[in-house]
Structures are given as structure tokens and as C-alpha cells.
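Sulfatase N-terminal domain-containing protein, Pseudaminobacter soli. C-alpha cells?
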Amino acid sequence: MSFFYPLRMIFNFHGRQRIIYILSALFAAFVFKFYDSKDSKKKSLFLWSLIPVIFLAVYVFVFAVFGAFDFGAVVYHLQSGMNGGHPDIRGAKVFYVALSLVGFLLSLLYLRRHDPRFHYVDISLALAFVAANPIVWTAADFYLSPPDPTLTNFYTAPPKQLPEGVKKKNIIIIYAESEERTFADINHGAETFAEMSEVAASGIEVQGIRQLANTGWTMAGFVSSQCGVPLQPRGLFSENNFAHQASFFAPIDCLSDVLNANGYHTEFMNGGDSHFAGIATFVDGHKFAFRSGVEDYRAIAGDYLNVWGLYDDTLFEQAEKRIELLGKQDKPFAFSMATIGGHAPNGHVSRTCRQKLEQGELSEMQFAIKCTGYLIKTFLAVLKQKGLLENTIVAIQSDHLIMENEHSGELNAKRRMNYFSISGDGIEPAVIKREAAMFDVFPTLLQVLGMELPGGRAGLGVSLFAKEPNLVETYGQDRLDGMLRRDWMLSRKLWGDASS
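C-alpha cells:
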């Protein structure tokens, strides 16, 4: 029963399928007959399959909590740690995975001690578990694949200077946690995504931005859209804590580097901890003039905090104050901020939304998505009323597709896509439908700010306004995912580290 539990979890058996799972487990138990050999001298407590089973259990546990996940995210967080992060881990899942692990190992140990034949079963299972673990063969694919310079050669460094005579515009970039566009297409989607759709209608919305390998978690979404590259793993054996490292993607120029060179003031405000997942190292290393996070606003928030940090209404209140200050400066600014409210599995609904919105038939997760949209819409309305959106571009995007939650089944039945809209001075409402990636956002932002890009290219991206095909359109998502997952040459270029 223990052995079959992970299979039931991964394939999400339910109803009659669950009965099949139980019967299969019972059948397996009867098949494994054993005898108590009194003269057997092999009473070893060692199991060859112990370590492979533990590693497989780790994979099953991560799958149970986050759903389908990116191997790059695992490697990245092995490097950066989880300081300041608080995944919502459900006790039942922890219990069942632990029970499955312990039950299976104890059963195997009992059989091993009572039947010499299971010594060979133990060895065979150990080899099978190593081969079956997705983390093992994905890591092998990454490290053992032959070098392919395609993506590395495609990389295009962004121009450093705006053309003469270009009027410098401010830009506000809002990373809306897990606010993926697909929410509009599921049951109650029109209500859930009403505010986000309304915001998109005021400018240009791009429909078709897919989530590629190494762009599917918060830091990866931030880096890919601001640097035009996926967050390639640096390697399993590099320094384990970015707080102790001097650089993050130092060999390449990102949006903040380019804008800083053109006289911009750049800031990043995070609803969570500024040091989570290497954010502070990246921000400090790429010329952001100022950064802030939950640690800077604890006194203001008091006990009104969620497990990740600030509620979104508190975050937008502080963002409004910062933008008011920036608007009084004599230089253009680029202000980026990242919300928390839509974080899976249930979201974190702000009290403002509890007071002003009706939840109705929306789930708690849907209500959290709606709440973030409502707060973004209100935030922009206040800025406009105060005259703070003049000569300003506003870009809004989901940082990544939402992770495991109660709507995963509905979402996975659709062609999932990230949200991206851009509005402001000189932008006419339109809808662009094309296959693209998060790193295509980078050249799009540069172009809308007036930068001239040959072929619309910067980083690995191609501007969403350009006629030239981007990498997703050229290779297709599946093939491009494979190229990204095994491209250690690109990793070496981005990190500037021979150990990558």
C-alpha cells in the first residue's frame, strides 16, 4: 500500500481509479509471499534501496505540494536557499508521504530479513529507483548533454544608450503573483479576472506568453522579463548561498543596467523578504538604486502580515508613497514591485477586498486572484488622479503560472499562458496574439521606452511588437524547453563561471 501511494498521488487517482489502486496494492502484497528461514544468517538492517527511496520520496513530496515543477527551480533553491520564504505545506500531505516512505521501507526490511531472496530484490529496486527518479535523469540530461551553441549564439546584448532626442518615459512594472491569464478561461473566470481584463483593455494585452523551462518561479519570472534570459541553473556544486556571492548574472546587462546608464533612478519593492531566493543579490548587482521588502515595513504593517510578507493592500499603499516621491525628482524612474496575494495554494486575500468585494461563488484562490486585480486597478486609478501616470508606461505581468491549487485540473485542461499588458503614454488599446516567452518581455519594454533594437532582439527575446519570429515561434515550446533544460553553455555565459 505504501509503495502504491506515490503513484496514486502523482496520477491523481479518484473514484473508481482509487479502487483500482487499492486492489493493485493488495494484489502486490499477496504476490510477494515469503518464508521465515530459521537457518538464514543474513539478518542485515542495511537496505540498498534506502537512499534512492528517500530521494524519490522528496520528489513525490515536492510534486504533492507544488504540482509539476521545474528542475531548474530545485537547483536554484539549493543554491539560494529559502530564507524569507514560507511554502504552504499541508499537514496531510506531509503525513501521507512520510507514512508511505516509512511503511514501504519497513515492509521491505521485514521481507529482507525473513527471505534471502529479497537481498536481490533490494538491489534491483535500488537501481530501479535511481533510474526512475525524474530529478536524476533530468540532472543527467543537463550535465551529460553534448554542447549546443544555438541559444548561446542567439543571445543579443541590449544597446546601452537611448537614441538622441528620445523623450525619456517613466516605467512602473507590477509583478502580480501567479496572476496567470488562464484564470479568465475556467469556471467563474469572467468574475475572477474582471479587473485584470479591464486593466488590459486600457492598453495592449499580449495573449500567448508560455511558461518555458527555467522561467516558472518568482525569481525566474523576474529575471527573464528584465534580462531577456531564463534563470539557468549555475550548477549543483557552486556556492550554496547567494548572500555570500558578489554577483548574479554579472556578464550581462539587464533592464536596470540599461536604464541606469541613461540617467534613470531604479527601484524594486517586494511584498516578501528582499533576501528571499537571491533577490537582494540580483537587485544590488544590477544597479538598482533602492530596494525594499517586508523587513522595511514591519513596523507599519504590525501584525497584519501573511506567511510570505505584506498583504497586497499594504504593499500598494507603500508603492503609492514611493512613486509620489519619485515623481518629484528631476530624473526619470523605473519602479518595479512584486505582490504576494495570489500565492498558491489558497492565496492571501487583503482585508480591503474582504470589506469592498463580494466573494460570491468564487473559491478562496479565485477571490485572491480577483483581489489582486482589484487592488491593481484601484492603484492605477489613484496614480492617474494624482497625475503620476503622465509620461509613464505601466507594465503588468504574472510572475509565473500558478502552482498546485484546487483549480489545477481546470487550468491544466487549457492552453496555459501568463498575463502581460502594457499601457500608458502613446499606447493605443490592442490585443496581440502570438506564441512567446517571458524573456520576450525584456526587448518589448526596451522598445516601448524608445530603444532601437536591430531585429527587435535583446537577450534571448524578440520584441512582441517586432515582425521577426521569436524562439518559441521558431522551435516550438516543447523543443525549446528541451534546449533550455540541457544548455549548460548558456549557463556558463550568464554566470561567467567555468564551474557551471
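The mean pLDDT is 84.
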